[in-house]
Records
---
Amino acid sequence: MSQYFTEDASVEAVNARMGQNINPRLAQVMASLVKHLHAFAKDVHLSQAEWDIAIEFLTKTGQICSGERQEFILLSDVLGFSMLVDAINNRRPAGATENTVFGPFHVDNAPELPMGSNISLDGKGESCRFEGMVIDLHGNPIAGARVDVWSDNADGFYDVQQPDIQPKWNNRGVFITGADGRYAFQGIKPVSYPIPDDGPVGQMLNHLGRHPYRPAHMHYLVTAKGFEKLVTHTFVGDDTYLSSDAVFGVKKTLIAPFEHVNDGQTIWRSPFDFVLTPV
Amino acid sequence: MSQYFTEDASVEAVNARMGQNINPRLAQVMASLVKHLHAFAKDVHLSQAEWDIAIEFLTKTGQICSGERQEFILLSDVLGFSMLVDAINNRRPAGATENTVFGPFHVDNAPELPMGSNISLDGKGESCRFEGMVIDLHGNPIAGARVDVWSDNADGFYDVQQPDIQPKWNNRGVFITGADGRYAFQGIKPVSYPIPDDGPVGQMLNHLGRHPYRPAHMHYLVTAKGFEKLVTHTFVGDDTYLSSDAVFGVKKTLIAPFEHVNDGQTIWRSPFDFVLTPV
């Protein structure tokens, strides 16, 4: 191999440059990144003008980031990359509940509430009872499981997006299962909403002929001693955007029933069991 | 194919989402990008923690960019991507002078000077006479070729990096060839210098066991009616960093002789002919 750059051996020229005593995992990851990035440029015969546009896009994507906004995670989300990394790292046996993306709206230390409590504090939306069991792969109830839940309100916003409008902890709560493994809480039937689309990623979606909406979903973070952490959503089965989630978060097994009840206490009921995998 | 995301069909899930009436070239480029990015994640089994580090790196890279600094171009440079895009778009017949990266230090409208003029205005460094011909693939001289040249000074800085220290247009000039196709100017033997390494890209190079230096070089932008634009450097053949240019700009054919002269007028002489390709 020539010690100088050539188009044919561009990958080798770059990767041969790494030092001998560096972190071996870093070396592996960077060598693969260079290989795939160069293959991309060669595949499409990327022009200088196109690369200039990409540089400008990446720069704007970094510059719009702030304490409240992470446009690079959004970019990763809309390219299916976040879901892919999640999938690679959370392969589970058949029957176990699948993971999906965590999203940016979880808040630590939400209040722990008595089983059955109402988490909708703003009185908006169609009430829904969420209930089911946390079980192991054999169907045995898991006691002491921590079920941390969060959703948007009926206007499509999380409480943290509207701190001056929504009550603190609106549509959030933590429930701990008893010996029967059961959980239950009262919330609202969630609604679909757009991801932030007023920045570079929104512009990109527009150029790609894609909409920015996520189908309605309830977030769950379920943890229990001796089991893998489960980060997931349940999706409302009749949502318009179910097959076109802007961040590709939907998995078939996560579509939950939303049954019309109207028993004077609630309008909807959504039963769903969470099946955890042992560590 | 499932309409929902799966690890195996992650690329298809994302690329099937593009609209029907979008720019076909954009569709082609994005589909390839998604394919190669997903292949990278799968190849190395990228962990969530690693991806979090990458998101933070990309964000910092965007945020350090300013009117005077383009850290994403620097990132592209050190990954050999800039050289690759340049190579893909400037394939030339054997015998033609090769391209290399343009770099960030060119300034438009440098003064046009009489042939043989001295461009070193600060009196620093070892004087060097640069001379040769601009010719076509058959060796015929090209009249009216515009030879735009620029280099660092003896301290390793371009004039635009030190506007308060260096004279304006120090080590820059434009020369127009006559009927004989010859060019000649007096400058200094350039010196090696580091790319900006106090940001995220510098930190990355450090983790990769790489230094930030570029081998000494003289920049050329050679244009003539009826010929392809040539963007190139000539490199000083005995430079320490010749085989480890931080941005992979060196090509074997661009290493120029630097001959010791000491004739009372100059210390060095560097002859080099530029061979242009017809458009």
---
Amino acid sequence: MDRTLTLSFSCPDASGIVAEVSGFVAQHHGWITEASQHTEHDLSRFFMRVEIRASSLDFPAEEFSQRFTPLAKKFQMDWHLSDSAHPRRVILLCSKQEHCLYDLLSRHVAQDFRFIVPCVISNHESHRKVVEAHGIPFHHIPVTPENKAEAYQKMADLFRREKADFIVLARYMQVLDENLCREFSGKILNIHHSFLPSFAGAKPYHQAHRRGVKLIGATCHFVTPELDEGPIVEQDVIRVDHSDTPESMVQLGKDIEKVVLARGLRALVEDRVLLAGNKTVVF
Amino acid sequence: MDRTLTLSFSCPDASGIVAEVSGFVAQHHGWITEASQHTEHDLSRFFMRVEIRASSLDFPAEEFSQRFTPLAKKFQMDWHLSDSAHPRRVILLCSKQEHCLYDLLSRHVAQDFRFIVPCVISNHESHRKVVEAHGIPFHHIPVTPENKAEAYQKMADLFRREKADFIVLARYMQVLDENLCREFSGKILNIHHSFLPSFAGAKPYHQAHRRGVKLIGATCHFVTPELDEGPIVEQDVIRVDHSDTPESMVQLGKDIEKVVLARGLRALVEDRVLLAGNKTVVF
Amino acid sequence: MDRTLTLSFSCPDASGIVAEVSGFVAQHHGWITEASQHTEHDLSRFFMRVEIRASSLDFPAEEFSQRFTPLAKKFQMDWHLSDSAHPRRVILLCSKQEHCLYDLLSRHVAQDFRFIVPCVISNHESHRKVVEAHGIPFHHIPVTPENKAEAYQKMADLFRREKADFIVLARYMQVLDENLCREFSGKILNIHHSFLPSFAGAKPYHQAHRRGVKLIGATCHFVTPELDEGPIVEQDVIRVDHSDTPESMVQLGKDIEKVVLARGLRALVEDRVLLAGNKTVVF
Amino acid sequence: MDRTLTLSFSCPDASGIVAEVSGFVAQHHGWITEASQHTEHDLSRFFMRVEIRASSLDFPAEEFSQRFTPLAKKFQMDWHLSDSAHPRRVILLCSKQEHCLYDLLSRHVAQDFRFIVPCVISNHESHRKVVEAHGIPFHHIPVTPENKAEAYQKMADLFRREKADFIVLARYMQVLDENLCREFSGKILNIHHSFLPSFAGAKPYHQAHRRGVKLIGATCHFVTPELDEGPIVEQDVIRVDHSDTPESMVQLGKDIEKVVLARGLRALVEDRVLLAGNKTVVF
């Protein structure tokens, strides 16, 4: 794999942005391997993502940020540069259900998309063995009505100490507290087991069964203090019929939950997800 | 196509129903070409649908109802027998949008599933020519705040006079009045342009765009006096992304609206849809 | 709808293409509403498509070609400019099956994507009425083993006289002759009722049934002298199971055939399809 | 979970089969929780699957086979009875790729569908740790051109000793030898990384890339001595486009490979798969 720099930004819409950004890269003989752009008209805001082969530039990759800053300032960009030499650090949180955890561990082993898992945190001991078989530290942090504040404090400490770029709730069955949501805003990804906005809240498969829908879904979204209301990153559905019970829906749903979460995480660690108000641009 | 009798029923759950029904058919040398059954546990109710080749029976098809009645009574069945020699009569209602109407006309021409269209009713003149090119009578019944009662009276008269088995709202943009919904309960099929229960009511694609969902849907359901709350017959979804506007969603959505409505109608005219409270069993 | 210019091209891969093209547009204050690019590494070839709002340019739309020519030459572009003020002219060919024809007529009425149908040609009279109800001329050109050459000559004359940009075989059941394929290379779109390369040739649903596949498909591709071997533009599939017969597959398949063909045509008339050897880039 | 008996059979088509089978169950007060039937007309063969709650019968579950035998003989059934009290034993074979193995281990942990994994066999050591973390024995059996016969002998011994009901090739990258295929005919399930019959043989994603298809697929099928020609149990596809390389297709394909294999295995251990010549009936 060649070393790659990924530049992503949003800024007030204006003419000439693409020309100047691609001009900057071209002037330094940079090879753009992928480029995407989008204008969000309601916000008059422009979004762009560019992947550049690091070795093609006529300056060291480490200098990109500094050299690009004037252009970023000119267009008032909210921008981010990431370097494939420094993969993202993703902490996984899980409870008793195994499917999302196993799926992400499997992808971590394959490195089909690159990410580091500094540790796994769970409110149960169930998955310690399999996590540790991967050489990944496992932290058991029980959460009870009494110790909640303290437990979330411990987690926040781990997030900071491990320099987590992202936190993934891989069917973690506790509601995070507001402070965590605020401090790590735009960094915590959740998988909800319904096709939001339908069936927000608890027991979505039971709600779906009661309403008699013919498809059930899963939604990967950013966590915000408002439960199940955060920006949606990815969704998918699977067909059910009258013979399905809430229990069989729970089972069927796992197959989309894990895929939808993984697609969301991949987009995130590859800098494909940009926030646009309460929505996302996913390049 | 061989002549086929289709028996469909629901009844209180009990043991031995399948044995007695299939025994009755076997005893008369009937050839069952398709059979489906389901128990709705919440309602303790059993549902069954059986297709029988008419020519295989040792009595004339016309006698089936009379001969089956004792069994139907024994199990307190809510039952229906239909005969492929008498295809269902389906009145189509449309407004200005063309996609569902053209799709159903195309299926009517093909007779992939069999139904008769005694007439098309619209609150606009737009589609008169194409409907009449099929030899189908076209009735223009404008609906205004002032003439509403009268207009719906006219429609009800047509429904009755034409002996409609079913009425299909093929993107008909008027809300039917309660009396119509009541009188023709279980006979009126609508296509709603969202994945219900999300985005019920007006302008669902605009609601979907605002929420930033990654899939949009369509729902075929029975019309009840409660808007968009009737039993769901069929649903499907299609992928959208950040580059879609409400307008492009409207266009994309057409491709699922027409398919979902057609699948719903097919199930209906083939006696595959049985009501189970506010849900459907679709065999 | 604003007037739009769409520039699409491919050229030998080189650095700086995006910068120069977007620089040219920016320098004339052009507003790019959509842009896509792709490098086909096997061919060392670069592909790009740019939509520009015509009114934003500081010169008349009519001058774009002339002004852009030097840049096109510099990069040895194989390029095309189209103008939304001049929608593409698409001749439809059909036989007895109705589903693709009705679907395209419905889209023509809606103009969700813009195209003109100068005429419909068929080897059967079946659909004359419905075509003429749209005010579209209908030409019945029977094709027999004896009159083949003459029939295809007539068609070629119509294609030329009507200045067809594209010809769509909407389940047209005759194999076009080589001369037609050659003269209108890259302009004739076909829908094949299988997921190519599986089940090329005749009766694909029967082949699929024999092999016991669990999904059947449809493929929209360019027509070349080699039957069913042309570049693929779009494909999709639909689920079947053991209870399906070849006949029911034929019926089910219609629902994907028409959608796949329509998506292919839309991409074509919007200049989203670029040829890359025997493959396509579809932006 | 209630104890369940599952009866599945095929037999020459005749009238009265359903009536007699359901009559037998009803006469012993058996509660049928699921029933499916199908006639394969080309073979004049009837297929049926019935799930019965064991506790509802008026005789011990252990006596079912003996009591049912006369009926089975009468209709010349090829039949099988399975008992949820004795879950199926499934040996997994894998190589270096992890996705199918992890997915099946995850399902084994969850027991969403019930199966026992007596051991995992691999021609590589890669996954020993994670397998053993589940308390499942891991056998490393390298396969080289020289030791092939001996290696397959070892495997056959394990299959027999562990009383495997089924063997799953979870992306096992060696071609099994003919003797194994013959001895364990109808018991070995493979996942092929293409939408068969397209792209049989080696490197299907590279073949797919070369042909420019717009969807790639995966096929779960029984292993027969003819490579990639065995009866198909399940298939699915995923969308790709011009920007995908063979390498990215390999990655994308994993998400369908594992789901398709798991669905196939589930159907198998639940006695939903019946062979009908070179095709399958999947209830």
---
Amino acid sequence: MSVKEFFLSKNDIPKQWYNLAADLPNPPKPPLGPDGKPISPDMLAAVFPMNLIEQEVSSQRWVDIPKEVIEILYRWRPAPLKRAVFLEEYLKTPARIYYKDESLSPPGSHKPNTAVVQAWYNKQFGIKRLTTETGAGQWGSALAFACNIVGLECKIYMVRISFDQKPLRKTMMRIWGGECVASPSNRTEFGQKILKEMPDTPGSLGIAISEAIEEAVGDKSGKTRYALGSVLNHVMLHQTIIGLEAKKQLFLAGEKKADVIIGCAGGGSNFAGLSFPFVCDKINGEDIAVIAAEPTACPTLTRGPFQYDFGDTAQMTPLLAMFTLGHGFVPPPIHAGGLRYHGMSPLVSQAVKEGLVTPKAYHQIKCYESALLWARTEGTICAPETSHAIACVIDEAKKAKEEGKEKVILFGYSGHGLMDLLGYEKFLEGKLSEYSLPQEELQKSLESIKHLPRAD
Amino acid sequence: MSVKEFFLSKNDIPKQWYNLAADLPNPPKPPLGPDGKPISPDMLAAVFPMNLIEQEVSSQRWVDIPKEVIEILYRWRPAPLKRAVFLEEYLKTPARIYYKDESLSPPGSHKPNTAVVQAWYNKQFGIKRLTTETGAGQWGSALAFACNIVGLECKIYMVRISFDQKPLRKTMMRIWGGECVASPSNRTEFGQKILKEMPDTPGSLGIAISEAIEEAVGDKSGKTRYALGSVLNHVMLHQTIIGLEAKKQLFLAGEKKADVIIGCAGGGSNFAGLSFPFVCDKINGEDIAVIAAEPTACPTLTRGPFQYDFGDTAQMTPLLAMFTLGHGFVPPPIHAGGLRYHGMSPLVSQAVKEGLVTPKAYHQIKCYESALLWARTEGTICAPETSHAIACVIDEAKKAKEEGKEKVILFGYSGHGLMDLLGYEKFLEGKLSEYSLPQEELQKSLESIKHLPRAD
């Protein structure tokens, strides 16, 4: 088998992002404030800069990428499209499997695609400092990387258990000049309150978000804002550069169309980035299957209702119309930390609701088996999040074999797994736990949000 | 500043390796056996396959790369040449700084350039199984990766202290199907002997080599051989693909010639790979400075004599003509594990002896300062070994500024530092030790090899 890679020249990088909101059959539902009424853009101004809020509420189909942003993206983009010829050969499938390799950015994932954009827009708006939260650390390291390039200070609240268990992600953030503190911390009132009530808490994404927002909003100088790495519309928008590049590269590869698009989905940014430009084609009548792969341990799209819910545990955010397991749901500690989120991007959620996207859930051990097969055929070590997409790809490639169909499968290789080798070690030792969904907790969590408005 | 990268197409990958032995003003000195006489190729046949031994003793200038090997190299080659425009800007230097990025291979360093070749030739020779040693784990993971591609079993003896301190490198080897054991082990007679004498020893590269060779030689079926990741002539040969590609890419970048070539040097393979094709130009009269950057804690080229010495601590290898600190020398525990070797490739050694290459030694803390500046300008996190080259690059770029000269500097970005973040963390915490050379131990070590033949 011969290696097949498809590169774009710097000149071929997309000059605009694609906004799915412009093409969804039904317009996305607006976020609601505490009073149950749609919030106005102004109500977000203390948290985000107005130029990003404009993108958040935009219904414009194409949004220009500033040329200064393109210059920054050039540091690692365009990302290559590769064909997984060795996996194809192993599976003896007639399917042609392509993947968009987002693991080559310095922080090792797709996250910088929006991190550098958010940092740049904040800088333009006169902001000096960004705060954010991070779980496993992919987003935190991407934002530290971005702030270093653009010239902003960066403060990251990292969930305490990850801070302690993954100390080297913290080191990455520090290398790029980011300040990383364990959350809950004594730097914020909310953190102090939690520490007083539960001094031994491992922390949670919800608490970390609350601390990061409190610090941003509390800066009296008005020079600090908060940045989020997924879920929101402007984040999905920035990530569409992935799918837009991939479309050009599939053409270079001689493919007239893709038949199956696959991405893993946690908050939705990696999935949306690859798939939205293809979902657009689907809306326009093309026959494409678009699959969001999620963990069975946190099955937001496959098991959650489509309704309004808070984006964070502490109920500080507006209510978002999305699939959700309830803001109080704590997913089991699977290694794919980036997929342990109770909710889902409202745009991705609506695309699922409208039948444009099909969700599928995968067990952790099947994902690691797939990742190992990938490493032993294609040669690279993928992130635990990415392994969910690969598990789905293998299923689809086997299906194509059974059907005897020459399908074109495209998936998002969202990140490398070099910072997450511990999960592989446990898997190889036969010590990896399979987590079933904690049914009782899920029921309790869903019960607690029943009073919130349905979104369908 | 605009990002500048130079890619070769797959077709432009070199089809031959370059052998410096053909062009050195004085022919390299042969290895000697225990009797002090040059060894014959046959004497290596129990350790290496004959096709690689032929390369080891070859004086042919150009050696064809088998097309099957090129197909394997395509998995991550050609490697990009990049210009460090952000570092240039920071230093306000008139120098143009280029680097050959070898960090993009799946194991993350230049090591697979020879690992896949050695695995392939062994496979051709009917070998089923390779043994090797590894210190920090870069070589061990590269050989596991290579054996998985080619279809060989792989057994890696990893120095115990690294095995315990860097468990995730072991995980990488296991992901690719390699068996990694801590050395000294109870799998070999030599290992058992050492464990009996010193049950708590942290192990050493010398002990690990001895165990790996014992296992290879002891396989009565004749289907096991040993593989070495540096030092030997055939390893240098395989790595010249780095410099040969870089030459073509400098031309693409519009440069007529390079003025300064810089690589870090431990056993010599990274340094030789980049520099030998340029050393050839120097022999032919071009004005090029070629600099080997080594640690002050293990200053083989800057402080060692040029004489015959053993390649391993246990004195199992033939005597090699090289710069050496003595096979008994134990370098201080700097983080650049790949540079902690008492000897140096005989070909690199002779190039230094003949004045074609200038060695320079760098302190660990200056190297980390340079690595941090690199991460905050160019954006990527380099291996501790690579940081030695970067420290040297910064010196040379500053010199160019003082001299007001538009020099072209090319260096080898030999690997990423994602598996070595602990050293960065210590540096950022101000807890990194500076190691001075243990003078007394060095004297003792040099004294102990005084009876061995001088090489000059």
